[in-house]
Amino acid sequence: MTARLNLVILGKQGAGKGTQSKRLAQTYKIPHISTGDILRAAVKAKSPLGLEVASILESGGLVSDDLVNRLVEQRFLEPDAARGGLLDGFPRTIGQAEALERILGHDGIKLCINLDVPVELVTQRLSSRRVCQECGAIYSDVDVEAISGTCSVCGGDVIQRADDRPEAIQKRLEAYERDTEPLLKFYESRGLLESVDGSLSPDDVTRAIAQALHARGIA
Ligand code: AMP
Fold this sequence. Notes:
Distance between the termini: 17 Å
Order of helices and strands: EHEHHHEHEHEEEHHEH
Helix content: 40-55%
Structural class: alpha/beta
CATH superfamily of the domain at 5-117 and 180-215: P-loop containing nucleotide triphosphate hydrolases
Strand content: 15-25%
Shape: globular
Bound molecules: adenosine monophosphate
C-alpha cells in the first residue's frame, strides 16, 4: 500500500490556498478537503448542517471546533482519503490542530505549507475575487466591471461570495490573526512548517511549493 500523504495549507483568506490546493491535490492524487467548500455546499443544499451554519458563514465568523472536527473526521473515513488528503481551511484554531493530530495520529501530517501574503494584498484580492456558484472556479484579480458573470469553465453564474464583502473580509482577517496565526508556531515547533511567498504569480507559487516538498523528500 502507498504511504498516506496528508498536507495542510495555511494562509490568510485570499492567499491563494484554493488555487494551490486544487493543483497539489491533482498532482499528488489526494482529495482536496476544504471545510469552507463542504460548509458552503451544505448551505446551498439547505441541509440541516447548512441551515445551522448559514448565518455564521455569511458574517465571516467561525463555526465551532466540534462541528468542523466531526466533519473532517468523517471525511477521512471516505475511501478516496485512504491515500491521504490536502487540508485547506482546516485547522484554523489550535483546538482543531490538536483534533487533527488525534484523527491522523501524531506523525500523520507530512507538511504544513504557509502561503505568506501581506494583508494589503489579500484585501485587494478578496474584494476583486469572484467564484462560480456551480463548479467553484475562482476568478482572481478580476476587472469587476468587465467580467460577464458567466463561468468560462461550466457556464454557471459567477458571483461575489457574501463573505468577500468589505465588513466580512475585515472580520475574517481578524479571526485569522487571532485564531489561526498561532498555528504557524504550532507546526514550526513540530518541524513541519514551510513558508512560501504567496505574493508571487500562481505558477511561481506552485513551483516554490514543489521545491519545498522535494527538499523534504516528499515529492
Ligand atoms: P473558507 O472558504 O475556508 O474561507 O471558509 C468559509 C467560511 O466557512 C469561514 O469564514 C467560516 O465561517 C467557515 N469555516 C471554514 N472552515 C472552518 C474551520 N476550520 N473552522 C471554523 N469555521 C470554518
